[in-house]
Amino acid sequence: QSVLTQPPSVSAAPGQKVTIYCSGSRSDIRNNYVSWYQHLPGTGPKLLIYDNDKRPSGIPNRFSGSKSGTSATLDITGLQAGDEADYYCGTWHSSLSAGVFGSGTKVTVL
Amino acid sequence: QVQLVESGGGVVQSGGSLRLSCAASGFTFSDYGMHWVRQVPGKGLEWAALVLFDGSNKYYVDSVRGRFTISRDNSKNTLYLQMNSLRVEDTAVYYCVKDKHERVEVPGHFSYGMDVWGQGTTVTVSS
């Protein structure tokens, strides 16, 4: 059972926007930075967002992250067929002294 | 280019041991913390272990602490995961992963992200 809670799935039509929420606690999200990953089957996950809201080079600005209190969000705008994947939030848990991931959200482009 | 290549996966009986290796290239290995992350078939990602850039501190998820040991050889640009007392529930794809930021001494508090992932190596523990 994951420490961070995400919705199992979200969906939208091409060109639309989806928002993925990641809910945690004071020991993880509130007191530490959050990252987001895109995972396609058969490949290693890809970093989309680090330090709550920063994008690595090469990641389009259609992907954006934010954090407030014990929750974080990933927005994907201008949804494309290639965005169909599993998305995970991740952070550090100060009390456990361990990394933690969210339960994962499957994005479907209708 | 920056690359991580895992090896050492395979099939082992419950209670057995296995050592995973991860060869790093394209960056200054000794400047970055390194993680192992695993994914059980059909399940989500699970963070397993972290060793800081200089090997000074190591961290583990509760389910592997005392059975797994993460280590690194900065002279060989290689990360290891020694897995002992393996259980069926350790069956997973294991990914070697690089920290985004250099010389992190306090994970998460000032920065957090894992920016380079290997292709994964499969570990199957049979009963």
Model regions low in confidence, pLDDT < 50 over at least 5 residues of chain B: none
Overall residue-averaged pLDDT value of chain B? 96
Shape of chain A: globular
Mean pLDDT of chain A: 96
Order of helices and strands of chain B: EEEEEEEEEEE
Proportion of residues in extended strands of chain A: over 45%
Work out the strand percent of chain B: over 45%
Helix content of chain B: under 10%
User: Secondary-structure element sequence of chain A?
Assistant: EEHEEEEEEE
From the helix content, strand content and strand pairing of chain B, which structural class follows? mainly beta
Form type of chain B: globular
Biggest sheet statistics of chain B: 7 strands, mixed
Over the alpha carbons, how many angstroms does the gyration radius of chain B reach? 14 Å
Question: Can you put this structure into words, describing what you see?
Answer:
Helix content of chain A is 5%, strand content 45%. Chain A has 1 helix and 9 strands. In chain A, the strands form 2 sheets. In chain A, strands 1, 3, 4, 7, 8 and 9 form a 6-stranded mixed beta sheet that branches. In chain A, strands 2-6-5 form a 3-stranded antiparallel beta sheet, with no helix packed on it. The mean pLDDT of chain A is 96. With 127 residues, chain B is mainly β. Helix content of chain B is 0%, strand content 54%. Chain B has strands spanning 3-7, 10-13, 18-25, 32-39, 45-51, 58-60, 68-73, 78-83, 92-102, 114-117, 121-126. In chain B, the strands form 2 sheets. In chain B, strands 2, 4, 5, 6, 9, 10 and 11 form a 7-stranded mixed beta sheet that branches. Chain B is globular.
